[in-house]
Write a structure and sequence with these properties.
Layout lengths: L1 E5 L2 H23 L2 E5 L6 H7 L9 E5 L1 E3 L10 H8 L8 E3 L7 H11 L6 E4 L22 E5 L2 H9 L12 E5 L1 H5 L3 E6 L5 H9 L17 E6 L7
Parallel strand pairs: 1-10, 2-3, 2-6, 3-5, 6-9, 9-10
Antiparallel strand pairs: 4-8, 7-8
Length: 240
């Protein structure tokens, strides 16, 4: 695991985007195409704003969406489909982008699983939740399933984070379930770029790095990845 600490969120976002773009360009040079995973949430704002500026032939890049709430429409302010369309997909001419439709549940998991199995992932852009989750795999996360996507239950801490970030007006409005890419599918990525700003993530960052790999800290599994790049700012690194 490579750990890069920046003074600001803006610097973090730029460095993470540059490293991810380097891996995307390398894949294109080697195979003529690249496949990537894109995360959402407040932690990805700065990284995505920098990534769209990178010199990449997006016409040969296929993208996959990490997770989505079950039961909300894509026009909802908290919809991750809406987030990605506005902040990434509409701004670069991708070859293809596969969204997670949160209204599809089991059928959607099957559909996406069949597609991603044909697209080995070169770069996964991810974050870490306040409860240590990776995608929407809350503790205790399923480290064993080989299914690329699964329906997951969101724990109270995860739902409080979504409320605290301003995505929902009240706690009861936060969905209790989501469709998430699985831990094993994320770990199949050739390279992982993990962007984690803000002091509220400091405890999760510390646990991710120093604790034993455990489903109770889902992001701790990143310790086992061969090309894992963790980008922190001064605040999120404050407990290291």
């Amino acid at each position: 695991m490579e750990i890069i600490i920046s003074l600001t969120k803006q610097e973090l976002g730029k460095q993470a985007a540059q490293k991810g773009a380097e891996f995307i360009r390398k894949a294109i040079a080697e195979r003529g195409e690249a496949n990537m995973i894109v995360a959402t949430g407040a932690s990805q704002f700065e990284m995505l704003s920098e990534l769209i500026k990178e010199n990449i032939d997006w016409s040969v890049v296929t993208g996959f969406h990490l997770d989505e709430y079950i039961g909300i429409d894509e026009t909802h302010p908290a919809s991750f489909r809406k987030y990605l369309k506005e902040r990434f997909v509409s701004l670069v001419p991708l070859k293809e982008f596969y969204y997670v439709n949160g209204n599809g549940a089991d059928n959607e998991c099957k559909r996406l699983g069949e597609i991603i199995s044909k697209h080995p992932i070169d770069v996964a852009f991810v974050g870490i939740g306040e409860n240590g989750h990776l995608a929407f795999n809350d503790p205790p996360a399923d480290f064993e399933t080989e299914e690329p996507y699964l329906v997951v239950n969101l724990d109270e801490n995860c739902r409080k984070q979504q409320l605290g970030e301003g995505w929902f007006p009240a706690f009861d409005d936060v969905p209790k379930q989501a469709i998430s890419m699985s831990i094993r599918q994320i770990m199949k990525s050739k390279h992982i770029i993990c962007s984690v700003p803000d002091e509220r993530k400091a405890e999760a960052v510390k646990n991710t790095i120093i604790c034993d790999v455990t489903p109770m800290v889902p992001a701790s599994v990143l310790q086992d990845h061969a090309s894992m790049w963790l980008y922190l700012d001064k605040a999120s690194a404050s407990k290291l």
